């Protein structure tokens, strides 16, 4: 006579960007609050999840990260882009090329019906290395505005500050997802 347990809602977020920008580390930070010593280049899809409580309701947040190899893409791409609730585009602030790749990633999402109607955010990762930054906050903010996305700058490695104890003024990963 007891009620069935409430269904856990699933919220699927895909994390997109060039290889090496820190997608896998960001999903680790969010789901396990850890920075992995070592990541393998993602083969296929990396998948992590965490249950969060929002307004008394359990929400299962699934983070999908892909390396985007051509081999994988042909077979998996449809699956990957299905039932997506939000898209996180990631670049590495110390790697200008990863920032220049963003239009192609945005376009690819758009082709899979993930355009402005889906929540999309832009994340500049590796802000603990800001001294080596190649992409300024101003330039990134202009780009984010032009694509109607909020911008976050963060560090999967050091979410609270730099190794020397100084603040790196970045957004915490928790605040992003
Ligand atoms: P992915 O290919 O986008 O999934 O990138 P990974 O998460 O595998 O990270 C690629 C490399 O960048 C690894 O050597 C990580 O240790 C490093 N890395 C990831 N995030 C950060 C960060 O916030 N700061 C620094 N300094 N290194 C990072
Ligand atoms: Mg990866």
Q: How would you describe this structure to a colleague?
A:
The protein has helices spanning 23-32, 70-80, 96-100, 102-111, 137-146, 173-176; strands at residues 9-16, 45-54, 57-66, 86-92, 120-125, 151-153. It is α/β, with parallel strands linked by helices and 177 residues long. It has a 6-stranded mixed β-sheet, with helices on both faces. The relative contact order is 0.18. Bound molecules: guanosine-5'-diphosphate and magnesium ion (MG). Residues 19-25, 39, 42, 65, 125-126, 128-129, 155-157 line the site of guanosine-5'-diphosphate (GDP).
Q: Overall pLDDT, averaged?
A: 83
- Ligands: guanosine-5'-diphosphate, magnesium ion
Percentage of residues in helical conformation: 25-40%
Structural class: alpha/beta
The poorly predicted ranges are none
* Major sheet summary line: 6 strands, mixed
Range of strand content = 15-25%
* Rg measurement, Å: 17 Å
Approximate shape:
globular
Spatial gap, N to C terminus: 38 Å
Strand and helix map with partners:
Layout: E1 9-16, H1 23-32, E2 45-54, E3 57-66, H2 70-80, E4 86-92, H3 96-100, H4 102-111, E5 120-125, H5 137-146, E6 151-153, H6 173-176
Parallel strand pairs: 1-3, 1-4, 4-5, 5-6
Antiparallel strand pairs: 2-3
The protein binds guanosine-5'-diphosphate (GDP) and magnesium ion.
Write a concise keyword list for the protein shown above.
177 residues, alpha/beta, 6-stranded mixed sheet, 6 helices, 6 strands, globular, binds guanosine-5'-diphosphate, binds magnesium ion
């Amino acid at each position: 006579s007891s009620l069935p347990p409430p269904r856990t809602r699933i919220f699927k977020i895909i994390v997109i960007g060039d290889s090496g920008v820190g997608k896998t580390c960001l999903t680790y930070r969010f789901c396990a609050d850890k920075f992995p010593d070592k990541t393998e280049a993602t083969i296929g899809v990396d998948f992590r999840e965490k249950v969060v409580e929002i307004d008394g309701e359990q929400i299962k947040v699934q983070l999908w990260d892909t390396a985007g190899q051509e081999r994988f893409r042909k077979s998996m791409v449809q699956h990957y882009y299905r039932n997506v609730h939000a898209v996180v585009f990631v670049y590495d602030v110390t790697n200008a090329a990863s920032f220049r790749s963003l239009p192609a990633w945005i376009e690819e999402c758009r082709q899979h019906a993930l355009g402005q109607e889906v929540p999309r955010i832009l994340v500049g990762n590796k802000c603990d290395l800001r001294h080596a930054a190649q992409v300024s906050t101003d330039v990134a903010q202009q780009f984010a505005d032009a694509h109607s996305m909020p911008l976050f700058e963060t560090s999967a490695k050091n979410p609270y500050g730099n190794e020397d104890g100084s603040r790196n003024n970045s957004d915490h990963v928790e605040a992003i997802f």
